[in-house]
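retry 2 of 3: previous attempt timed out while embedding beta-D-glucopyranose. Reduced batch size to 1 and resubmitted. Inputs unchanged:
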Amino acid sequence: MGGYGHAATMEAGWMGKPVTGRARLVAGLAAVAGLMFGLDIGVISGALSLIAQEFEATQLQQEWIVASMMLGASAGVLIAARLSFVWGRKRTLVIGAMLFVAGAVFCALSGSVGTLIVARIVMGLAIGISTFTAPLYISEIADARHRGAMVSVYQLMITIGILLAFVSDALFSYFDAWRWMLGVVAFPGVVYLIGAAFLPASPRWLMMMGRRDAARRALLELRGQAGGVARELAEIDAQLRGQTRGWALFRDNPNFRRSVLLGIMLQCIQQFTGMNVVMYYAPRIFGLAGFAEHARLWGTASVGVVNMLATFLAIGLVDRWGRRPMLVCGLLVMSAGMALLGAMIRMGPDPGGQQAMAVGVLLCFVAGFAFSAGPLVWVLCSEIQPLQGRDFGLACSTTTNWIANMIVGSTFLTLLDRLGQGQTFWLYAGLNALFVVLVLLFVPETKGLSLERIEHELMAGRRLRDIGRERVPGGVGPA
Ligand code: BGC
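retry 2 succeeded.
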């Protein structure tokens, strides 16, 4: 998923203005873009076994049917980083939305594994483009008062999208209708396309292109009041003057390199928790635990419910507990969950108490992710990038998210086969335990800190995990 935490990072200081219809449209776009992301993540899990039966797909082919979307998404992020600069955010969003609809229809009509993989790559391109561009656009359009809410809406909508996909899969499974499972995504895609077509161009992009008058008009349309528009234009001017190109900054500035690498590390952590193993292969995991066909898909739907509900927990607690404790707690829960699941699967299916326990453990794992690494990695990724290099930093971390996602999605079945079923879950248990250490060593606590302070301390070379901590008087250590 794209860098939606991005939306939290633009402190343009345009407070207290009324929300215009256009601004509502932008909030709606945030919601639909999140929903599309979630639907696409969720939809394959229920369809996979039916597809495998119809095409007699090998294990490797199944893995690639899953992972091809992430391959497309990684490429989509990179394409969007360029297109959204050259053609503008809005046009890039429209292209992404068109690809969504085309990809979904193409998936539904696929006649072979090969065409399905190509169709999933098209879907992936759409999702990569949208997960990069939508948050970027939103951050440039939303006023400061509503940005935080939009981040949360976006995150929540991803989990709602996943849940809807799981439920729709469960319903269509009674008709063995995998084509409908994949094709139904075209409908929200059309809504997204229509919404994107009516969006105003981003004022910040217009300013980057030197089109000041058009930027003023776009802002007026969005804010509905002339008073603050001049101030906001001046702020954009000031921001653009301070901007260095990302690669040059990365090459020349070791402190910026740290924030880029931290973003990459955080996204690797998020993906290698193994959450998407559950997202893509939950029915298979329920199968390993001894569940019958339809029960597997309803079990998967319960995973979607817990994923969504636990996200509320994160939204409620993140600014009170802080990022580090929540991440550590979530990772510990995930590590324990994977370890227990591995143990149960090794003991073999036993219809009865153990099955219920396997479900409980899986749900704990999912909750652990949804209240920690799921939302917080995105929030942190946006908070730690200095303004001058934000687009570059986010393109790096978001691409990493998709590449790591692809690795996880394309290796699970092989791991089950080669490493063994229980051991595969233990591998993820071990990784989650390792991530606890990495978080303690490298992740700063950004709760309650202004973005300026984070940036100041980061660029002054302060040790990452000390950022935001009060200095001990007379204390030494990296400044
Ligand atoms: C992750 C996705 C994951 C989703 C699950 C997102 O934060 O980036 O990879 O599928 O959470 O809710």
